[in-house]
UniProtKB/TrEMBL annotation:
<dbReference type="InterPro" id="IPR029056">
    <property type="entry name" value="Ribokinase-like"/>
</dbReference>
<dbReference type="InterPro" id="IPR052562">
    <property type="entry name" value="Ketohexokinase-related"/>
</dbReference>
<feature type="domain" description="Carbohydrate kinase PfkB">
    <location>
        <begin position="355"/>
        <end position="436"/>
    </location>
</feature>
<dbReference type="InterPro" id="IPR011611">
    <property type="entry name" value="PfkB_dom"/>
</dbReference>
<keyword id="KW-0808">Transferase</keyword>
<feature type="region of interest" description="Disordered">
    <location>
        <begin position="271"/>
        <end position="292"/>
    </location>
</feature>
<protein>
    <recommendedName>
        <fullName>Carbohydrate kinase PfkB domain-containing protein</fullName>
    </recommendedName>
</protein>
<dbReference type="InterPro" id="IPR002139">
    <property type="entry name" value="Ribo/fructo_kinase"/>
</dbReference>
<dbReference type="GO" id="GO:0016301">
    <property type="term" value="F:kinase activity"/>
</dbReference>
<feature type="domain" description="Carbohydrate kinase PfkB">
    <location>
        <begin position="40"/>
        <end position="247"/>
    </location>
</feature>
<keyword id="KW-0418">Kinase</keyword>
<feature type="compositionally biased region" description="Low complexity">
    <location>
        <begin position="275"/>
        <end position="286"/>
    </location>
</feature>
<dbReference type="Pfam" id="PF00294">
    <property type="entry name" value="PfkB"/>
</dbReference>
């Protein structure tokens, strides 16, 4: 049964001063068809619901950040059509600055068909891109306006040639760079090399590196991306994993080494025990209607419980597992690249998706990274309350942007991201379920307080 909150005290205090962030990437329209079960080939069936909403990773993540209180500006390109007008109107309604959006006269705006399978809990996306943003359109004036007063610039991995110009300018100006790695794309490796912060999808680390376990894959990611201070991999219902790299010279090297896969396993067991203990305590002390542990209430009244997070006590030198097989990893990565090219209707360009750059990563020493490890669970949301997972990763990234620019610690960022992502899943589409500050407890939004 879905638990609904009878009373809830959300955050009523805005941020003390405006915080500008910039997002560069995809923006379009989503056509969401909810069906009872995914159709078989040649089968006809009816939708349970059809929604037409704004979409695109970058636009979705900025919307999440805007509802948390940040002031986003989007850099993207859409069509000069009616769909484009609707895209801008929806972004304006959430307080997003669209003054740097380019319009392609005579071209349609990007759009995506999304089939939401209620029985399987999956969503299948078929994307039709619009006119690409080319490097010549990322002018010096546009870059200057984008970076003026910005605390952070976020890239969703699209428009890579143009995005790289903005990323390099941001680094030169001392503006933090966050790059999303959702799936293999041509040019993404160069963009990732500019990143101070990286957030990946569940499968990206293993597809890029070919490593068979999440620990080895994330560790190889850290080796390849020596500039990245923080790397987070989202894992859907399993939560997220974060590596916080120790800055060079900030502390003496730790006296011990650990296999990252073992550390992740131990921390996962630790937070699983925390969740079980909390559930037992809640069941014995309430009669099914308590809102004591709720940290968020969705717009349709669903109460969401906090995630759990565990971490190492400090930084340690991280090692690969003993079962690591370099030859198998290379073969897996090559096959992942082939499949990515095929799915992107770019089968003749498999090499562009391979992204093998171990020997060329700028600043890479191939030494084992020294980092603190964090593992978080997903937030507590009844299974029957999940309407659609479209955009859950985008909402998490919006939370990461909020956390970075308000000086949150990694564990706080992961806790906030888990709750915002869970709330998003209570409604069909990427944006309707995104919470505002008023739907979240103050403790989730303040850097210096514990949940």
């Amino acid at each position: 049964m879905v638990v609904r909150a009878a009373a809830f005290e959300g955050c009523q205090v805005p941020l003390p001063k405006p915080v500008k962030i910039v997002g560069c990437g995809s923006c379009g329209v989503d056509y969401l068809a909810s069906v009872a079960v995914y159709p078989k080939p040649d089968q006809k069936l009816r939708t349970d619901a059809l929604e037409v909403q704004g979409g695109g990773n970058c636009a979705n993540a900025l919307t999440a950040a805007a509802r948390l209180g940040l002031k986003p500006t989007i850099v993207t390109k859409i069509g000069g059509d009616g769909l484009g007008d609707g895209i801008l109107s929806e972004l304006h309604a959430d307080g997003i600055d669209t003054s740097l959006v380019l319009r392609a006269t005579g071209h349609p705006s990007p759009f995506t068909y999304i089939i939401v399978d209620r029985e399987g809990g999956t969503r299948t996306c078929i994307h039709t891109p619009g006119a690409p943003m080319v490097p010549e359109e990322m002018t010096a004036e546009l870059i200057r306006h984008a970076l003026d007063g910005a605390a952070l610039v976020y890239f969703d991995g699209r428009l890579t040639e143009a995005a790289l110009l903005l990323a390099r300018a941001a680094r030169a100006a001392g503006v933090a760079v966050l790059v999303e790695a959702e799936r293999l794309r041509p040019g993404l490796q160069e963009l990732l090399q500019q990143a101070d912060y990286v957030v990946t999808s569940t499968h990206f680390p293993q597809e890029w590196t070919g490593e068979q376990c999440i620990g080895d894959a994330m560790l190889e990611l850290a080796v390849r991306l020596p500039r990245a201070r923080m790397i987070i991999t989202t894992r859907g219902a399993e939560g997220s994993v974060c590596l916080l790299r120790q800055e060079h010279g900030s502390q003496p090297d730790p006296p011990f080494e650990r296999c990252l896969q073992d550390v992740i396993h131990e921390l996962t067991s630790q937070i699983t025990g925390m969740s079980s203990s909390s559930s037992s305590s809640s069941s014995s002390s309430s009669n099914g209607g308590s809102t004591t542990d709720h940290v968020c209430v969705s717009s349709n009244g669903i109460a969401i419980q906090p995630a759990r997070v565990g971490s190492t006590s400090g930084s340690m030198r991280l090692q690969f597992s003993s079962s690591r097989n370099s030859a198998a990893a290379e073969a897996y990565a090559q096959e992942a690249a082939r499949q990515a090219a095929e799915l992107n209707a770019d089968a003749s360009n498999t090499q562009g998706y391979t992204m093998i750059q171990q020997a060329t990563a700028e600043g890479s020493t191939h030494s084992s990274p020294v980092a603190q490890v964090f593992v978080a669970s997903a937030a507590g949301l009844p299974a029957e309350a999940v309407a659609d997972t479209t955009g859950a990763g985008d909402s998490f990234i919006g939370s990461v942007m909020y956390g970075i620019t308000t000086d949150m610690s990694p564990d706080k960022i992961m806790l906030l991201g888990a709750v915002v992502a869970a709330c998003k899943c209570t409604a069909l589409g990427a944006r309707p379920g995104l919470p505002t500050r008023q739907q979240l407890t103050p403790q989730l939004l303040v850097a210096g307080q514990d949940n």
